[in-house]
Amino acid sequence: MLSKWLPGVRLLTRYRRSWLRRDIVAGIVLSTLLVPQGMAYAELAGLPVITGLYTTVLCLLGYAVFGPSRILMLGPDSSLGPIIAATILPIVGANGNPEEAVALASLLALLVGGVMVVAGVAKLGFVADLLSMPTRIGYMNGLALTIFIGQLPKLFGFSVDANGLIGEAVAFVQGLAAGKVIIAAALIGLVSLGIVLAFDRWLPRIPGVLVAVLVAIAATSFLNLGDHGVELVGQLPQGFPPLTLPRAVSDLPLLVGGALGIALVALTDTISTSSVFAARSGQEVNGNGEMVGIGAANIAAGFFQGFPVSTSSSRTAVAEHVGARSQLAGVVGAAVIVLMLVFVPGLMRNLPEPTLAAVVIAASISLADIPSLVRLWRQRRTEFLLAIAAFLGVALLGVLQGITLAVALSILNVFRRAWWPYQTTLGRVPGIPGVHDQQQYPNAEVLPGLVIFRFDAPLFFANTRAFRDQIRYFAATKPKPRWILIAAASLTDVDTTAADMLAALDEEINADNISLVFAELKDPVREKLERYELIGPLDPAHFFPTLDTAISAFREQTGAKWEPPRDGKRT
After folding, report:
1. Which terminus of the chain, N or C, has fewer Cβ atoms within 10 Å?
2. Rounded to the nearest 5 degrees, what angle is found at the Cα of 179, between the Cα atoms of 177 and 182?
3. Distances from the Cα of 570 to the Cαs of 107, 444, 562, in angstroms?
4. Looking at residue 233, what is its pLDDT?
5. Who has greater pLDDT, 503 or 411?
6. pTM, entire model
């Protein structure tokens, strides 16, 4: 029973000695990436850099115990940083107390963790589907642009007092025009960015972030960049923070809203990342278990001055590449960071702030997915427009508002498809068995007096008018049909509103000597019609198991023969 809720304990009972060396090496390599990224993403979230290291350590330990995956690596994430900042900065203010910001971020992590654990235990992993692929592409591109613009002033050595994408962009240009750029900062920032991007492009097996950090620290030491106006990270606090219990705050509703948005993004990232890496290793994705694992990681971070975390595809890819076999690699990485904080807290004191900005900008570039936008434009314009709407929501309204809009658009898109579903009539195509879509085969043969109609959606209150109007249209055509045959395989549901509509519609067209006939109605749907007491008012003889049997019955009754449509196409 204990192993069910503690997958890390279960893994220990199956751990192989042959994995140990690989996990230790992987953990040491990972730590070289975890430190600069943790610090950079902490600043992206509007928090002191040290909190990024605290967060990294605790989330790795928490997931190692409660997480089901052997390979996923968690930590501060570039996609969550802006949401965290958008949640806590309005509360503390732009120049607020850093300690208050840390306290709010820790409480936010606990809320995210609680949401994830409860959702995982309740088996609500399906909520990841609330962000459809097109809206997620738009959201992530908007997030990438927001991060990119927000980090440019820091990359060039100055700061701006502005909010929002447009405001920050304008302030950055004004800063450039006013000569606020610190040349040494801009040079080290651009060189760092170039190194990260170059290694990612041409030498992906070597962590470009690590190389950039080492080059930047060396340049600072030999060229005394600090004396030339370049802001440095400085000495980190020694040791580790104590267990800190959350305190009550008056702005809890704002934090809860942010926590829900963060939980949704973190879950979506985790499900997509875990699916990719699980497929490579032949493992199954345990969506609900992942929610519990990520929730536990966030709770662990929240109790030690950390902030919300998610799965990192880049760190997971590094762990896989260097041969990690279990979450022990993450534990080793966490241990290395703790040793650094305890024994050499000054190791990163000469790291330039523009280099951290370069790390974040490189991450924002990796979030952008322009090729997918182009593919949507070519393949389905409506989904491209959804992506653009989500993009504009993030870019113009803000990160939290943008994710709310993205979720709303995803839900509305599903409703739109059910509200205005695809509708068509069917006919016989010589040489192809069965009956087929007349919109695809406009010269398909028809039987005089028979309309075969397909309505590709469940029949419910929102689309009953569309269904009824189309049947009335068929009933009014000349020459008048004798049967309107519903190809009902696609009617996966009929609600009570639709049932009342069918009863009234059948009575209406029967008065004009037209029969409403059904074929291939699914058993669960027919059972609902019986429960609605609709079978009876609807003639039981007008229900057929297949389209072929219904068509044969019509031909026997009328003697009709297949012939080309009179107008070349029936709509």
Report:
1. N
2. 130
3. 62, 9, 14
4. 94
5. 503
6. 0.82
Q: Are strands 515-519 and 543-544 parallel, antiparallel or unpaired?
A: parallel
**Which helix (DSSP H) or strand (DSSP E) does residue 41 occupy?**
helix 17-44
Closest CA to 102 of 116, 84, 75: 84
Answer yes or no: are the C-beta atoms of 516 and 505 closer than 8 Å: yes
Which amino acid, 446?
V
CB 366 within 8 A of CB 37: no
Q: Which two tokens stand for residue 113?
A: 């963790």
Alpha-carbon gap, residue 401 to 257, rounded angstroms: 10
Is residue 128 within 8 Å of residue 406, measured between CB atoms? no
**Per-residue 3-state assignment (H helix, E strand, C coil) for 229-288:** CCCECCCCCCCCCCCCCCCCCCCHHHHHHHHHHHHHHHHHHHHHHHHHHHHHHCCCCCHH
Residue type, position 568, single letter = G
Please check whether residue 75 is in contact with residue 270, taking contact to mean a CB–CB distance below 8 angstroms: no
Segments of the chain assigned to CATH 3.30.750.24 = 423-558
Bridge-based pairing state of the strands 543-544 and 423-428: unpaired
The pLDDT score that the predictor gives to residue 127 is 74
Residue length, the chain?
571
Fold type of domain 423-558: Transcription Regulator spoIIAA (3.30.750)
Quick one: tokens of 498? 């639709």
Matching residue, tokens 């802001």: 231
Q: How many CB atoms lie within 10 A of CB 286?
A: 18
Mean pLDDT within 113-120: 93
Listed in sequence order, the residues at least 6 apart from 198 whose beta carbon sits closer than 8 Å to its beta carbon are 208
Report how far residue 420's alpha carbon sits from residue 246's, in angstroms, rounded to the nearest whole number: 49
Minimum mean pLDDT range among 2-16, 144-158, 236-250, 360-374 = 2-16
d(CA 169, CA 163): 9
Query: Between the ranges 89-103, 251-265, 342-356, where is the mean pLDDT highest?
Result: 342-356
**Phi-psi category of 164—alpha, beta or left, where left has phi over 0 and alpha has psi -120 to 50?**
left
Q: Give every strand in the sheet of 543-544, ordered side by side.
A: 435-437, 423-428, 450-455, 483-487, 515-519, 543-544
Residues 6+ apart with CB under 8 A from 187: none
pLDDT of residue 196 exceeding 50: yes
Give me the pLDDT at residue 274, please. Answer: 77
User: Per-residue pLDDT tens for 252-272?
Assistant: 888 999 999 999 898 888 877
**Residue 186, φ and ψ in degrees, nearest 5:** -65, -40
Instruction: For residues 283-303, give the mean pLDDT.
Output: 88
